[in-house]
Amino acid sequence: MTGLTDEAWPLAAAPNPFIPPALQRKAGIPEASAEATLARGKRITDGWLSAADEVVVSHPTMEEDRVLLASPLIAGVPLGTPETRAYQRYRT
Questions:
Q1: Is the C or the N end of the chain the one with fewer CB within 10 Å?
Q2: Where are the alpha helices (DSSP H) in 20-90?
Q3: Contacts of residue 8, Cβ cutoff 8 Å, sequence gap at least 6
Q4: How far is CA 59 from the centre of its chain?
Q5: By CB neighbour count within 10 A (0-12 exposed, 13-18 middle, 19+ buried), where does 46 fall?
Q6: Which residues pair with 67 in a beta bridge?
Q7: CA distance 20 to 16
Q8: CA-only gyration radius of the chain, Å
Q9: What's the rounded Cα separation, in Å, for the pair 12 and 30?
Q10: How far is the C-alpha of 8 from the C-alpha of 57, rounded, in Å?
């Protein structure tokens, strides 16, 4: 997964402006509150991280002159450099 900055993941809450927020929370709509949106993001992230023996997640560190931070949902993932294999080249 790429692009997992603190601004991009988890998604921001986006309650429907035409339905009372309390009713949306009562109905369990994930976008209705920041808490529900965060919980949903944690469940999705946990699923990603447990989907394979090796999972690579990343985020950009800069955008033009602005520093970007990792999503708090991947902050506990150890930093590292993925192994890349050398493949034989067949082009001349």
A1: C
A2: 21-26, 34-49
A3: 59, 71
A4: 9
A5: exposed
A6: 62
A7: 8
A8: 18
A9: 10
A10: 13
Which tokens in the block code for residue 68?
Answer: 């970007």
pLDDT in tens, 28-86: 888 888 888 999 999 999 999 999 998 889 999 999 999 999 999 998 888 887 777 78
Strand partners, 66: 63
Asked if 73 contacts 7 with a C-beta cutoff of 8 angstroms, the reply is no
Residue with tokens 């509150």: 33
Q: For the whole model, what pTM was predicted?
A: 0.75
Count the Cβ atoms, other than its own, within 10 Å of residue 9.
20
Contact status, residue 57 vs residue 48, Cβ threshold 8 Å: yes
